[in-house]
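User
New here, explain this?
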Amino acid sequence: MKSKLNRSGTASWLALLALAAMPLSCNFLVRVEDGCARDEECPSGQVCNVRRRFCALPVVEQCNGIDDDADGVSDEMQDFGSCQPEVGMGMCGGRRVCRRANGRWALTCELAPAEQEDVCFNGVDDNCNGVVDDGSECNVNFAPTRGLTIGSNDPTTGEGDDAPAHQVCLDRFTLDRYEVTQAQYAVFLSSLAQENVRIDRPTNVMNSTVTYGRYVIYRNRVGDDVNLMYQPNRPGPTQLKRGDGYWVPWSDETKMMPALGVTWLGAAMYCDWAGKHLPTEAEYFRAARGDRGTRLYPWGDEAPTCERANIGINGPNGGPCTGGPMAVNTLDRGASVDGRVFHLFGNANEWMFDWLDTNPTHTENRYYQSLSPASTSVDGGFGTSAWCTTYPTGPLGPDAGSPISQPEGAGQYCRNCRFARGRHYRTVDLRIGIRRWLDPDRSDETVGFRCSRGGTPRAGLPR
């Protein structure tokens, strides 16, 4: 019996040795013989373990007393990012810290003292006024506007659903200078009850004619599942990483990039949580095209270049400028002439507050046609009597969206359409009138957003 066990044990060890000698083929590793010496040699979203020379998904540090990511920093000294327990409740944000108490490790939010100066990009209400990231460097104020042209009668500037051109009036409003970043959106996700957050394929969708993929899904306080953020099948820098009870950007290099893949619902929830709301299409046009709506691009009438806009052409060898998103505070030459608002064109499509009401072939804009486009003089400027009388503080768009069909019966782009404007890092169509149509519970890796305040009041969403 003993010799049989020895023979069996020897066979088992030989089998293990044989397995160890085989090349690794797991989907999250590069074969050992290929090796790596730096992160750039690994597939997108993976990092190089230099000592063992293989590529793997990066480790998310846990608050457990163990140096999970082997960076030599203890959990007590680890930076777990900003935290904001609640906005508008008299609680200033702070930092997440890892502490051991009563034999257990746990993350807590150490709140900063009240009345701190508000700073940009940290996703925190530093000055405790109920608004996140509202410092003077974070926002641009726009005065009341009359005679702002929306739409176009030239079908070459858009999809054909931009007519008729009409002039609207706007009340004063404040617009985020920058797109919402991954770092900011991570603070918002971390503020939600994590037991109600999961990553999954949604089972109840608005548009059953398309495939949704995986999303970050939140079950809100009224029991509804809300798709917040699209998760590509392959991990990468457009995603956020989930730790134990918190979310973080993919890396230090991506924290200033726009939060992408966010649904309209996820964007509207963030803005509401931050004490703001999504901008209307009219507000976007005011910021991007000037107080008359006649400027061709945010920076002027010069054609887009990679020095002004992160787009999918005009880059090296005629290809994309970067092939991916850029930090939201880059390309100063592309900022808007008035207000210095960044990336209103290029980098990311941006969600508008408005629904989109067109015919199924998107050749007519029924909302634009709902009032007379005829203009008249208003207070020494130009305005539209019907639009300014009906919407004196600015239009919010139609009451609901309409469906837009794909060609040849291939389904529907959206059944109840919202839309995003501003083009993105992959775009080769540089017409500023182009929209990205989607149902509010869908998104992709090119869609982000920014928030606004003031203007026409608009309702928030249940959280």
Summary: Residues 1-33 have pLDDT under 50 and may be disordered.
